[in-house]
Amino acid sequence: MEQQFTFTGKQKTFFLGLMALGAICLALTYLGDTTPHHERFWTNFLHNSVFFTGISFIGLYWLAAHTIGYSGWHIGFKRVVEAMTLFLPIGLLLLLVMIVGLYGGFHHLYHWAADGITDPNSANYDKIIAGKSALLNKGTYTGVTVIVLLVWAAIAWMMRRHSLAEDKEGGLKRYKSMKLWAAVLLPVGAFSSAFCIWLWIMSIDSHWYSTMFAWYTSASWLVSAMCILTLIIIYLRSQGYMGHLNKHHLHDLGKYVFAFSIFWTYVWFSQFMLIWYANVGEETVYFNNRMKHFPVLFYGNIIINFLLPFFVLMRNTTKWKVGSLTFICIFVLFGHWLDFFQMIKPSIWAGLKHHAHEAGHHGAEISDFMMGFHFPGLLEVGTFLGFLGLFLYFVFAQMAKASLVPVNDPYLYESLHHHA
């Protein structure tokens, strides 16, 4: 059953080409950025860094939940999930770039980081942000990002280490160790991921908050991770690997995409309904901005991420078909990347418009439609492909370091004989 994946030169060249495309698009974005502090460049960098780091984390959380739940059906492809989780150190490096930019004043994405914002004697004083200053400050942002990602990465490494040792040793010792680390991650990851998403994205809208935002973003990460996982497995099967998997495995992955697309919609609507119904200015400003100035993003988000997977995957037979799964996973993955786009860009645009107005330009320098803010341009798509190439290069490199089949996992037999 041992199955060794070979990371070919052709695959490496393709992924390196995507990375080069992404680097070129980032450079062109920076050089051609007409916003005051290169906001288009920095939002693109933050957007993709958080998106792919989150996919890596939620893959680890998914693996831990299945381990604790005594799941067996996923064992046949768990090495792919393990490879996805090992991207977390790269995610830390990416977010360290954002931290350097924060301290160096290279970007102004976070209003709470402005000089004098918490000083009552300053012209920039903001009472609301001052009340949140215990959380919204550079030290907390840095500490939470570094410590949390190091903890996530360490747990991912430990679970991977025990998984590989199990191939050689057999028995239940390593399996029990993996269960222990999975049990540690579930509560730690649940709370720490909420803090991270509050700081990385929700705090861009410094006056706004939502107790459901962490659920919302986590659901988006999970659907995205399931889409990437499904696409990788389909690709590996087309290359002659993963022959031990059957159509029931793909069917269940399709059910994951279907079910959590509905869950994502439930959280989206609940957040929208409760905040809009409350009609509190500090809360409704988030949705008002997006509905009024970004209708294509706002409503397109629902069409791609709910209506499309709902009507395509609702039929049970559709989830058996490789072509249908490939189609829907590509579109939904892009849709949730677009979801993170609309979490970030409208807030930055509104801030630019506000500051231009206060400066006496009445918003003239910030137009009512800006490519890269109201909708992704070619540079945003190219940057996304570059980060995707980086993610897949790392995942494929990790898959090549061990057998794709965990030969001594106690639940392997169950996975080999899985029926949906």
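Second entry:
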Amino acid sequence: MSAGSQFKRYYSKEILGLPEETKCIVRGWVEDIRPLGKLMFITVRDRTGLAQIVLNRNIVGEEGFAVGENLTRQSVIEAFGKVQKSRSQNVLMEVLVEKLTVLSRSSPPFPIDPTGRVFSSLDKRLDARALDLRNPQVMAIFKIRHTVLKSIRETFYRLGFIEVNTPKIIGQAAEGGANLFKLTYFDKKAYLAQSPQLYKEQLTMSLEKVFEIAQYFRAEKSNTLRHVCEFTSLDMEAAYMDEFEVMEVAEEVVCNVLKDVEKENSEELNILRVKLPRAERPFKRISYTEAIEKLNKKRRIEWGEDLQTKDLRMLGRVFKEFYFIYHWPLAIKPFYIERLDERLSRSFDLMYGYLELASGGKRVSDRQELEKRLIEQKLDPKDFEYHLRTFNYGMPPHSGWGLGVDRLLMVITGKDNIRETILYPRDPRRLVP
């Protein structure tokens, strides 16, 4: 028997809606096997859920029934059969098998229980990530991630942005050389990109409004719950916009993501037992100076200091939804951020509780000012000559931001550890699988 015109492959979720006697093909991995005399009930999982198939010794014969008897859990199978009503109270429809084929036989014991019934540490799960993804709760995270990425792209397309791809092997450091992975590029010194910053600024000269979703790299020997060495960043840059206008773009992106996840991933949210965070526009906005004033009611912080995790946690208890902290001190922001005055920059961070999701602002668009800012931060303008040269061609005023997609997934899925939201995370201790 082969998959011809008489039989069609249906996902587990679709079988519930099929009329009786429908000829179908079920493919997936075996989760449970329950023999009962001349009958054998097998639960098969695929990416949409569970289906029950039934082997009847009288129908499949001794040879066919032996295939079921020799099955191992997690083996990948293909079953041809007909849909029928189930006698079980927990299963409405099932498939009476006419032929069962083992496409790939598993070899127990397994390093983790992919059903999630037996607890496994995150490290053990990540060591067997491909198997871990068969856990419905883990799979739910990455189905939501798919919706998030799709939603982001659709929002930027509607707003007239052009999607771009910038180099990940670079010859100069966008942030001045800190926390970069160094490598040898033939006979030259090179780095893995930690940001598309300089490239996306240059692209506003012609394409005007650009965005990119890509992996970036930071050589930080940090083992916190919110840092990894390879992360997915959403970056945008737009000519003729100021910091407040691109903050509005960030609001629209986040609100559309939440709306689309609510629409498309209700089942996954139920599996994860989480509720989406609230996001009402406009997001709350407080200046850095206002934030310092609030924090100084609890502990003394000097104006001009960067905010530490404990400070952000204190603010997060006050602002429980998405909010912006804007106009940070100039001295603690990158050289490409434009000054508001001698002390302040035209910058902002998008926050959710204590978690920084995005950082951005209005950029310097004058070459002389940019050289001055480089020198102020003890960087050599000669190291940025290729970038500075583009300002001679006419650089429009522009603004932008970068948002951590993995961190946004943490907020949506209720996960405390960023590694839960990345398929194969990389941190100082993990290079495989």
